[in-house]
Amino acid sequence: ALVIKIQNNVPLPRSMGDYPFKKMKKGDSFAVEIIKKQSVRTCIQNFQKKHPRMKFVTHTDGDKIRVWRIK
Question: With contact defined as beta carbons under 8 Å apart, do 34 and 60 qualify?
Answer without folding.
Answer: yes
